[in-house]
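Sequence in, structure out. Go.
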Amino acid sequence: MIAQEDWDADLIVAADPDLIESTARALALPLAITAYDPAAAPAPSRAGRMTLLASRCVHAPVPGMLDPANARYVLGLLDRACDGCVRGEFAAMVTAPVQKSVLSDAGVAFTGHTEYLAARTQAALPVMLLVCERMRVALVTTHLPLAAVPAAITADRLLATLRIVDADLRRRFRVPNPRIAVLGLNPHAGEAGHLGREEIDVIDPALRVARAEGIDARGPVPADTAFTPHALAGVDVVLAMYHDQGLPVLKAASFGDAVNVTLGLPIVRTSVDHGTALALARSGQADAGSLHAAVALAIELAGDGAADAGS
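Output:
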């Protein structure tokens, strides 16, 4: 549990106090809660203590049960954390998994944190990046039906994505000269046009422009060989064309320890690599490994502002 260990940052948890306190009691976890005070000097978080930015649910939550009545409450927490990061109150935000279906059931147009936070911060193009010890995988498209992917991959979008990945790896991850392996859309990267022309007509022209701008964009690379140990050893990030082209490989290698990072935002935002696991709610059996990694990476990416890192 995140609140049961020491951290070299001031972690602020935005949540319903009754939910936090009842969960700690149910799991027999020691927890002393302090109300968040924006004027207080930041101090490293200590095991068994939590600084809480309190916000109460509309309806009392039942562990493991979805309630559309609380959908706006969930979005309110996101807005509070995001806005606090934008104005410098917090150095970073870490999001727990959200159940997209219950937000949709409440009438909210919500395809994911990535898109929502981009709209909130007025970012032109958010880029999803998954990070684990062995690899980084970024995506050109995110939560789209597979049939909609080819039309969404334009030369302009690919070039904009490459610019963001290159810039944020330099700025956030301190990679001096990012080496980007760009996957093809089709099997065998199109096999010289015999298995599709997207590589010839869209991807390769965008890569040529990127390389002319000084971006080390390599490819298009066949996806079936891009994740071999030898291939990964020569690059800093793999850029996949769509969600299920790159993420299954990364999650197979490190599920529960990977971190989701949104590039292209004016703030630092990290998250877990998994969903809500409703069946494990308040069971004490949930694995907090990815949340731990997300908090640690947020602190690292926030750099000198990490003393004020919030979640």
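Check: The chain has two domains: 1-123+265-311, 126-262. Residues 169 and 175 are 6 Å apart (CA to CA).
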